[in-house]
Amino acid sequence: MTTHTLRYYERVGLIQPVGRARNGHRRYSEADEAWLNFLHCMRATNMPIREMQRYAELRELGDSTSLERRKILEDHQAAIAGQITELQKAHALLTHKIANYKKIEQRIRIGGPQTAEPEVDCTLASAS
Amino acid sequence: MTTHTLRYYERVGLIQPVGRARNGHRRYSEADEAWLNFLHCMRATNMPIREMQRYAELRELGDSTSLERRKILEDHQAAIAGQITELQKAHALLTHKIANYKKIEQRIRIGGPQTAEPEVDCTLASAS
DNA sequence: CTACATCTTTGAGCGCGCTCAAAGTCAAGG
DNA sequence: CCTTGACTTTGAGCGCGCTCAAAGATGTAG
Q1: Pick from A69, A104, A122: CB nearest B101
Q2: Domain membership of residue B30 as a residue range
Q3: Chain B residue whose CA is closest to A44
C-alpha cells in the first residue's frame, strides 16, 4: 500500500484522520493498521470503494449498526464464493487448453500430420 | 456481453472482422462464439486486454506460436491460482468477522455487558 | 407509403481506483 | 548555514475497460 493510496483512503473517508507526531507526520496505531489490513483485504477481493465507504461509515456509528454491517460482509462473502467458482472453472479450462497445446507441440516436433484434430477454442461447456 | 463490447473487441483486434449477412449485419459463427466465450472467460478472471491482444495475435499466426501461447495460458493459470488463494483467505476472514457480529447482536438483544470483548478488526494473521 | 426497430459507423465520454506533480514545511547531518 | 530527505497539502491526470451518442442504412409490419 503506497502513501498515495493511504492519502486517498483518508480523503474519501475510508480512514479517519489519524494521529500525528509533533512534526505533523502521521503515526498509524496498531488499530489503524488492522483496519487498513482489513480494507486491503476487501479491496483485494474486489469490494468497490463505495461499499467500503458505506461500511466505514456504519462502523463510525458503533455497535448499533452491527446488523447492517454484517449484511454487507455476508453479501461480499457470497460475491467471493462466486468469484472462486468462476476462477476454478477458468482454471480447469486452462488445464485442458494447455494440454492441447502440448499435443500440438508434440505433433510439430515429430513432424506428424498437421491437419488432424485442429485446435479448438474449447468452451466451459465442452472443454475438450 | 453487449454489442458495445463486441464492437470494442473488434476494434482492438481481439476478434477478426466477422462474417456479414447480405444487409451488412454481423453473423457470428460457432467458431466465433467459442472464441468469444474463451475471451469472456479470460476477462472474467482478470486477464488484461493487452495480454488477450497478444494471445489473439499469436493465434492468427498459427500452430508455430503454440509454445508462446501456452506460456501465456500457464502464466494466467498461475495468476488464477493466486487469486483463488486470496479469495479463500478473505472468505475465511469474513466467516470470523460475521461470527463476531452475531455475538455483538446477541449481546445487544440480551442487554448484556456492552464493554466486554470490544470489536476487533481481525487481520488475516490473527483472525480471531 | 409510413413507421419502427435494428443494425451500421465514428468518435467522444465516463467511472473506478489510484497516481502523480508542485510547492511548502520541518528535522537531522555535515 | 546549507543541503538532503521525508513528510505535508491540494488538485490535476491517467490507464483500463468499457459505454454511449449521433447520424445513417436497411428490413419488417401495418
Answers
A1: A69
A2: 3-110
A3: B86
